[in-house]
Amino acid sequence: MSHAPVKPGAAFAFRKTMTVAEQAMFTGISGNLGGLYVDAVRARKAGASNMVAFELAVGGLATTCLSQLGGPTRRIGSIALNFAAPVIVGDSVEAKAEIVSVSGDEATCRVTCTLSPSGATVVDGTATLVPFAKA
């Protein structure tokens, strides 16, 4: 199986608003019933303006970008994310992934998530794209 070439500098961005309905779905998927994530009153008592969006749901937006960069023959081989600040349910987030280097069939990417429209970084990290299966 041949793999489409990936090149340093290629980038993809994706923006979405973190909704209450998706927060409820992610609660069911993850089983996380932490008060910051499922109870607006508790979140407000902790200093948030509303429930806090699940960090992995926010970071998961970057996987959309990585999938677009990798195309149909690549998958995420690794991902390391730093969560610089909480995202509140109702916030809009722009995720971006950019290929920074390529070694053989493996591409190293920088990933970021920023609040829109302020541009404040809420997630940053790295990921690798690898072939789905070796030829």
Short note summarizing the structure:
The chain has 135 residues and is α+β, with helices and mostly antiparallel strands. The chain has helices at residues 20-30, 35-38, 40-45, 55-70, and strands at 11-17, 74-83, 92-103, 106-116, 121-131.
What does this structure look like?
The protein is an alpha+beta fold and 135 residues long. The chain has a domain at 10-18 and 56-131: Hotdog Thioesterase (Thiol Ester Dehydrase, Chain A). The chain is 27% helix and 38% strand. The protein has 4 helices and 5 strands. It has helices spanning 20-30, 35-38, 40-45, 55-70; strands at 11-17, 74-83, 92-103, 106-116, 121-131. The protein has a 5-stranded antiparallel β-sheet with strand order 1-3-4-5-2, covered by helices on one side. It is elongated and about 50 Å long. The mean pLDDT is 92.
Tell me about the biggest sheet? 5 strands, antiparallel
Structural class: alpha+beta
One letter per element, helices H and strands E, the order comes to: EHHHHEEEE
What is the level 1 CATH name of the domain at 10-18 and 56-131?
A: Alpha Beta
Identify the overall geometry: elongated
Low-confidence stretches: none
Distance N terminus to C terminus? 5 Å
Helix percentage range = 25-40%
User: What percent strand?
Assistant: 35-45%
Query: What is the residue-averaged pLDDT?
Result: 92
Number of helices: 4
Q: In what order do the strands lie side by side in the largest sheet?
A: 1-3-4-5-2
Domain MaoC-like: 9-107
GO molecular function, one term: (3R)-hydroxyacyl-[acyl-carrier-protein] dehydratase activity
Protein name: Acyl dehydratase
Pfam family, one: MaoC_dehydratas
